[in-house]
Design goal:
By secondary structure, this protein is of the alpha+beta class. The chain contains six helices and five strands.
Amino acid sequence: MHRRSRWEPHHPAVRAAAATVAALGVLTGCSDLPSEEEVRYAGDYGGHEPLAVVGYPSTGTLRTAQEVVWRTADGDAEELAALAAPGTARGVPAATARTWISAFGEGARGMVTAEFYDEGSKRQSVVLYFHATGQIKQIDVRAGMGGEDRDWYVYMDQPDRAAATAVPSWIPRAPGALGSRSGH
């Protein structure tokens, strides 16, 4: 089942989300309409399988992990590469995005558990468990620094499929086995 997540104002999920947010604003006496980003996020959230969560994400690490899974599921290499941390060698995020989509796209379209390791105020290691395929992918996310375009980024320097699909030895085969503490 392939679902689109690009912000499309005529997509039923986007219209429903916008209507719900607008109605809540009217009911609570608030006149602000949702931003384009809020409408897009609501559409993405409604258009994908829910992400199961283990551990203690920050708002930023959770949203970034969700976006990685959503863009991978949608096969959207351009949007996935846009999540890359600045300073990554030119062309590497785009190649990494294509590799991640090829390697994990099928699993990302099904049930995914994200386990968030350690504390996540500045950076966090996140392990994605793709239940449909049995695959595991570890990603590292970090907070933006002053002057950057986004609040959170993901390190994307794995254009090689072998590196992208390698599972570090410290990662358990099932979420929650280490109590969301990496110890590495």
